[in-house]
Specification:
The protein is built from 13 helices and no strands. By secondary structure, it is an all-alpha fold.
Length: about 300
């Protein structure tokens, strides 16, 4: 609980997106350690665990603290709960403390979700992020999961008002999204294939843990995509127009691990991009806070892929 609380405070101070890019870098470092025959501690306990996982300090705490800063304290630097780029260290002490408390709650929620049958077939870390964001929107901004009813009435639930409402407008148009997501899926599937070929013999020989050998192929592409978002965090203008593709990466990797096909991985990556955009239009575009489309897509997509694998 203390680890989570401290990480949540720091996450709020750094801001949600910077915290997430840092999480991605830690995950990549952890993957490399495992592939070198080392411990899975950095990967599983720091990058994906209670120390700096995305469901605690590595993303969610900063996102939820931004909603609190906007809806309750009116001191979010960006003026909106959707601003997850701005550091919150200059706001007020209670914003930082709320980040700490919400990280603890995120950790506890994860334990609950993983104990519920069927629900635990989803990516419960991603599902925790989504649930915490929805609850924060409701508590801090008195707004439902779909956002402003007035905006929905004016533009339609799936409307974008000529992309002015869009989450990541530079990659939201369907042709670009399809081509890019296919490429991201093929790339991540190929990385998963290579990492699995290296790590399976090492796990059989006892050189690395079975958990590490499973997680590295699944998460390596996700880590690259997450770390690359530092470009979105620090860029401006055209330079900031960077793709957000960790949803495509992890679902394509999972598809390869389930079905052993790069073609299937590419198709799943393509579908993951479309799913992510659909969820953005439903839960982000009309809202006043950030409900993360990639996390939502990962939670739903993982559930569907795991159920499909079980049905075969």
């Amino acid at each position: 609980m203390l680890l989570c609380f401290g990480g949540g405070i720091v996450s709020a101070a750094l801001g949600g997106l910077f915290s997430f890019a840092l999480c991605g870098a830690i995950v990549l470092a952890g993957c490399l350690v495992v592939m070198a025959g080392g411990s899975d501690f950095i990967l599983l306990q720091v990058g994906l665990g209670p120390i700096w996982g995305p469901h605690v300090g590595g993303f969610s705490a900063g996102v939820c603290a931004a909603a609190y800063a906007a809806g309750i304290r009116n001191n979010n630097p960006g003026g909106s709960g959707k601003d997850i780029l701005s550091p919150l260290v200059g706001t007020s002490w209670d914003v930082l403390a709320v980040g700490g408390v919400l990280a603890v709650l995120g950790h506890l929620l994860l334990q609950l979700l993983t104990a519920i049958p069927v629900v635990n077939k989803a990516d419960c870390i991603a599902l925790t992020i989504v649930v915490m964001a929805i609850v924060s929107r409701l508590l801090f901004c008195k707004e439902g999961p779909f956002g402003s009813l007035d905006s929905i009435r004016e533009h339609g639930l799936l409307g974008t008002d000529n992309w002015s409402l869009s989450w990541v407008p530079w990659m939201s148009k369907t042709p670009q999204l399809i081509v890019f997501s296919l490429g991201a899926g093929l790339l991540s599937g190929a990385v998963a294939m290579g990492a699995k070929n290296i790590l399976d013999p090492m796990a059989s020989a006892g050189a690395v843990s079975a958990a590490g050998a499973f997680v590295v192929p699944l998460i390596f592409g996700w880590g690259v995509a997450a770390a690359s978002l530092i470009c979105l965090e620090l860029g401006s203008g055209e330079i900031q127009k960077f793709p957000v593709w960790h949803c495509q990466a992890i679902l394509a990797a999972l598809a390869y691990m389930h079905f052993g096909s790069l073609l299937v991985a590419g198709i799943v990556g393509l579908m993951a991009g479309l799913l992510q955009e659909l969820l953005a239009r439903m839960f982000w575009n009309h809202g006043s806070t950030h409900i993360d489309p990639p996390a939502f897509g990962i939670a739903v997509g993982t559930l569907l892929l795991n159920l499909a694998k079980a049905a075969i």
